[in-house]
Amino acid sequence: MSESHHEKDTDSSASKQVDRQITHISSEEKGLSVDEMTDEQFYARLSPNRKRIIVIIVSISCLVSPLSSLAFLPAISEIATQFHTSATVINISSAAYCVVMAVSPCLMGPLGDIYGRRIIFLACLTLYTATSVCVAVSQNLSMFFVFRCLTALSGTAFFATGSSVIGDIYPPTERGNAIGWVLSGSQLGPAFGPCLGGIIVNFTSWRVIFWVLAGLGLFVLVMAFCFLIETGRFLKYKQLSSHTNSKFVFVPYNPFRVVVALRHISLILAGMISVSLHYNMYALLTPIRYVMNPRFKLEEPIYAGLFYLAPGVGYLVGSFMGGRWADYHVRKYINKRGRRVPEDRLRSAIIAHGLALPGSILIYGWTLDKEKGGMVVPVVCMFVCGIAQTICFPSVNTYCVDSMPHLKGDAIASNYMIRFLAAAVASATILTQINHIGIGWTCTISAFVLWLGFLSNAILVVFGERLRGEDPKKSSEIEFQSQSKY
């Protein structure tokens, strides 16, 4: 009996695999372009292994820019000494970096929809590698600032275009897990970057940090050149070049498309979610050396760098949970109501965003402020912050892709634009806040910002579908019947 049942299961799984292969092969044998495929054929055109390779490349690409953003934090004092300035001035370069990252989606997001994802990845990785070398050889403060900002210009392209790539290769019910893996790169950068920077500056020059980053950029560039294929569908460049029979076609575009996307109330609320998460993230990570070293009487940069391992491990653990947890909620409510609603995946972040994040940041701040609890309490709180934050991010990222498919990459690009503006505000002001009101009240402000983001999340869960229903193009494109195939 059990053997018969096992044979049936084996036959069933084998038949499913054959069906997938037949779907993939039949599409190629018919000579269909991606523009001519049905949604089912489009998502089945790549093998699972090919999809995994693409996810790995996108994830590592998303690592390099946030790694560059914060890896130099343990070396701020050394950089300030070399350029004869203050640590606050050097820290402003991190804020400027985030501002340029916020501008980047306005340029790179629309270009990805026009010319394709692959060319944007290759161009941005080339720019990142070259400018990282220039930062490493900076001779004065002006050169350091300018090339830091140029490094950031490529940064957000990996996030916004990477999310679009995931939307190109996975159906909606599978995107959350893939987005979680992509976010593991972007979350590990801010946490492990300062740890790496602390180790490097403890034994050698701060310039080595940027040489290492340039080497990483070159490595990812080679990987993308060899293995990243074009995933875009309905690219304007391809459509115009086929009509004009010319390989070189200039397509005019509006860089303000990304800003205009924020006219949608649901995207503004999703932006508030990301703003709160990113503000808290940079408010936690930026001042660690200035908070921990005096509190625990630590002298060497490497010790402050090691504190970044606590949120870093939390980000790593959370990245494996957040996407799957969000996909679980999507499937749960599909079974419950018989159709897919993008806001359902935001339910996965309710506890993490409303309770775990603000609670842990408050305990972290006030135990340091009052010098209670020893070293264990802030380390545990940073770990919890890391897990909770990475549980929240996949849901809001995938929500932007799913809820506004007619906006293509502009929806997620607009979200990255405003979240990095929040990161810039945190980077520029957090040390001043700590100096004037202390770490306890600074973390209280961060908790308040988190609760505003949680309120936005709750509004979307309850009213989001109706808010999108103001535009008939939005909700009409999201039908369970078209998605149940996957």
Molecular structure report:
The chain has 486 residues and is mainly α. It has a single domain (47-232, 257-483), classed as MFS general substrate transporter like domains (Growth Hormone, Chain: A, Up-down Bundle). The chain is built from 21 helices and no strands. It has helices at 2-29, 39-43, 48-70, 76-82, 87-115, 117-136, 141-153, 155-169, 172-203, 207-227, 236-244, 257-260, 265-285, 288-296, 301-307, 309-337, 350-369, 376-403, 410-468, 472-475, 480-483. Helix 5 (87-115) runs parallel beside helix 8 (155-169), helix 8 packs across helix 19 and helix 13 packs antiparallel against helix 18 (376-403). It is found in: Membrane.
Q: Helix coverage percent of residues?
A: over 70%
The assigned structural class equals mainly alpha
Q: Might you state the CATH topology name?
A: Growth Hormone, Chain: A
* Series of H and E elements: HHHHHHHHHHHHHHHHHHHHH
Overall CATH class: Mainly Alpha
**How many individual domains?**
1
Report the C-alpha radius of gyration, rounded: 23 Å
The shape is globular
Total beta strands? 0
- Average pLDDT figure: 81
Largest sheet: none
Number of helices: 21
Distance between the termini: 31 Å
